[in-house]
Specification:
- The protein is an alpha+beta fold.
- The chain has two domains: 3-166, no CATH class; 188-319 and 335-356, Pyrimidine nucleoside phosphorylase-like, C-terminal domain (Aldehyde Oxidoreductase, domain 3, Alpha-Beta Complex).
- Helix content is 63%, strand content 9%.
- It contains 17 helices and nine strands.
- The protein has helices spanning 3-12, 17-40, 49-52, 56-91, 97-101, 104-124, 138-165, 168-186, 197-203, 227-237, 272-280, 294-309, 316-334, 358-372, 377-391, 397-417, 421-438; strands at residues 193-194, 212-215, 220-225, 239-243, 250-251, 256-262, 282-285, 342-345, 348-352.
- Strands 1-8-9-4-6-2 form a six-stranded mixed β-sheet, sandwiched between helices. Strands 5-3-7 form a three-stranded antiparallel β-sheet.
- Helix 8 (168-186) runs antiparallel to helix 12.
- The chain is flat.
- It starts with a helix and ends with a helix.
- 37% of the residues are buried.
- The model has no long low-confidence stretch (mean pLDDT 85).
């Protein structure tokens, strides 16, 4: 992720960028229509007195009424948006706020009302009447009326959108869809060519290399890594780059960000410019983002489930929906190659990447849900059902081992927290189904 991609992602998730562009477009439209009115004159408007028959005072009154009503409605929309953000943060998780801020329909609706206000002000100042040389921009005024009529539908749409977006099912499905898109983008994602067994054996002698750490220039969360640039640097300097910080991890300024070792004899000279280039390969910000951090999407769903299981909310149905979607996302990963941490080019190992494996994704998705399930039998059942679904999608021994571990942990937690055999019986049955799926029997 380079600096321009990061800037675009930051702009895309702001509440002001799209409305600002729409206000600029409204001002340009006002100028264009007023100029058109000035060019073609008003003689043709006499043929349509009901549409363009307003005088200077009438046009001023209408534009003033539209402008004042639009800014009032814009204030209402901003209030509803802030209220929605506060409710989502308290009821679900504050990690979802960025998702709502980058919601395109909300940005467009806010921009639409503010841009109408700006448009009316721009047209209003061009109207001349009385003792002045009379000028009434009929087309521009009529277009303002059309925008005001469209705004009624936009307001109704926004209220419907807010009511729909606050439903737990839609919030969870939206996070899952965004996470799935990230999975499709990242896996399989290769950096150079996959290392051969011989090259991996060569790296077993990495202790002979002299690693030089490169310190991070800022503190924050790793939001993106420009792997192509790291590969290019390793190629240009005949070196190997070892990532010390993984995607989504928190970096402290001055701590090692990457380490570099040269294949050539002698120590590697890492000048200030070289260290700056390596730092620019990492996008570091104040919070995690989902664009390159696939585990963050799983973390969001897990946070919603844990919040739903808290005593203050106690919403089992929402937690169950989160587990269902987590199972669907992990099933998607189960038959995908998550990539080798060892990458090579031209027969030479160039980059040692830090990549999460399938077991770490399983832990991210289910560990906190399991530990917060307490005496909720439905959670254990659904968690084991999700593990069974994932087990049916893969035949890799390492994946089976991780799934078996999660299933055993879920059963152990259920046996510890559930005291009645009536509650334990279906959980044990689900555990047996998971084992059967791992054995290829269903």
């Amino acid at each position: 992720m380079n600096r321009f991609q990061r800037l675009w992602l930051d702009l895309n998730s702001s509440l002001w960028f799209v409305p600002g562009l729409m206000v600029l477009g409204a001002l340009l439209a006002a100028y264009g229509l007023v100029h058109l009115d000035q060019t073609i004159g008003r003689a043709w408007t006499r043929d349509y007195p009901l549409l363009f028959g307003a005088g200077a005072d009438g046009a001023r009154g209408m534009l003033t009424a539209i402008a004042s009503s639009m800014i009032t409605v814009a204030g209402l929309i901003f209030s509803l948006t802030l209220s929605t953000l506060a409710q989502v943060s308290s009821q679900y998780t504050s990690r979802l706020l960025r998702n709502f801020m980058r919601n395109r329909p909300s940005q467009v609706v806010m921009g639409f009302f503010v841009s109408i206000f700006a448009y009316c002000l721009a047209v209003l100042r061009t109207i001349r009447g009385g003792d002045e040389h009379e000028f009434i921009p009929s087309l521009a005024t009529a277009f303002a009326l059309l925008l005001a009529l469209v705004s009624i539908g936009m307001l109704i749409f926004f209220i419907h959108h807010i009511a729909s977006s606050l439903q737990a099912a839609n919030i969870i499905a939206g996070v899952a869809a965004e996470t799935e898109a990230t999975f499709h983008k990242l896996f399989p994602k290769e950096l150079g060519e996959a290392a051969t067994p011989a090259e991996k054996a060569e790296m077993a002698d990495a202790g002979q290399l002299r690693w030089v750490p490169v310190a991070a220039s800022a503190s924050g969360y790793v939001q993106g890594i420009d792997e192509e640039d790291l590969l290019a640097f390793a190629r240009e300097t005949n070196a190997v780059v070892r990532m010390e910080q993984a995607m989504g991890s928190f970096v402290v300024q001055g701590s090692p960000l990457v380490s570099v070792a040269s294949y050539a004899p002698g120590a590697l000279n890492l000048t200030g410019d070289v260290q700056q280039r390596l730092n620019l390969g990492y996008a570091i910000g104040r919070q995690r983002t989902i664009d390159q951090d696939a585990g963050f999407g799983l973390r969001q769903l897990e946070d919603i489930a844990v919040k739903a299981l808290s005593p203050g909310i106690n919403d089992t149905s929402t937690a169950v929906m989160c587990i269902d979607w987590l199972g669907a996302l992990l099933a998607l990963l189960a038959h995908r190659d998550l990539g080798s941490p060892v990458r090579a080019e031209g027969g030479q190992v160039r980059v040692l990447a830090l990549r999460p494996d399938f077991a770490s994704y399983l832990r991210t998705a289910f560990d906190q849900v399991r530990t917060n399930a307490a005496k909720d039998e439905a959670i254990y059942q659904r968690l084991l059902a999700a593990l069974r679904t994932v087990a049916q999608r893969t035949s890799r021994p390492a994946y089976h081992q991780a799934l078996r571990q999660q299933a055993d942990l879920a059963l152990a937690a259920a046996e510890k927290n559930l005291t009645a055999d009536y509650d334990l019986a279906p959980v044990r049955q689900q555990h047996q189904r998971v084992l059967a799926a791992l054995a290829g029997e269903g």
